[in-house]
Amino acid sequence: MEFLKPLTQYSHQATELEQALTDIFVLLYQENLAARDHSINCSGVPWLADFETQARFSAQDGISIYYKDGFEAHMTHIFRAWSSRRVKRGLNFLDFYMRMLWPDQYSIDWLWHHRDLNRLPYPSALTLEQTPDHFPTLRFVLSLDESISLPDIQQILPSLRSVVPAEYVMQGVVRRIDLGNQPLGFAHAAAATACMTFSCGDPL
């Protein structure tokens, strides 16, 4: 370690006893204090620290850690990007977050609403259908591949709430399940734990 160089490389040990004491000090430091000191020194840049420290700091910032083997580097990259976030990102960070975890296994599907607001007041007639009788809204559904398990979705829900800007509304998180010509979703509401099913294209 760099800050031990004055002791280990540039300090003169006159006797074997002094050398032994130096070696013992370095060994005890590496075994008992080095990891903690590294975490403290990385407090300003926690993505350079160990994964446990990253998890603690990311939780404070509203980004939940996705605990799965092989995803530590992905979460480090996500946390580093989140720590340097800028305003007016739109849904770019949500797209980045999902692309880091499950590329090609998700889609952000915008919801539309019927133009007849007198008969169908907003937001009672939201749909995935895009027709001249509907207008786009700032509401959307995050659709996930059926290979992504519900426990995995549960892990990232706190992060999804954090990365979506206030002007947008995430209507739900949906697992796409293809049943012939009738694709159904197993929906997991962003603000609740109740599950429901719905047919794509029908009002939510």
What do these coordinates show?
There is one protein chain. The chain has 204 residues and is an alpha+beta fold. It has a domain at 91-204. It has helices at 5-8, 16-32, 34-41, 51-60, 72-83, 92-101, 150-163; strands at 106-114, 126-127, 134-145, 169-179, 182-188, 195-199. A 6-stranded mixed β-sheet has the order 2-1-3-4-5-6. A hairpin with a 2-residue loop joins strand 4 (169-179) and strand 5. Helix 5 packs antiparallel against helix 6 (92-101). The longest helix is centred in the first third of the chain and has 17 residues, at 16-32. The radius of gyration is 25 Å and the shape is rod-shaped. Residues 178-204 have low confidence and may be disordered.
Short précis:
The chain has 204 residues and is α+β, with helices and mostly antiparallel strands. It contains seven helices and six strands, in the order H-H-H-H-H-H-E-E-E-H-E-E-E. It is 37% helix and 23% strand.
Alpha plus pi helix count: 7
Radius of gyration: 25 Å
Structural category:
alpha+beta
SSE pattern: HHHHHHEEEHEEE
* N/C terminus separation: 58 Å
Q: Which residue ranges are poorly predicted, with pLDDT under 50 across at least 5 consecutive positions?
A: 178-204
Overall geometry: rod-shaped
Side-by-side strand order of the widest sheet: 2-1-3-4-5-6
Percent helix among the residues? 25-40%
Largest sheet: 6 strands, mixed
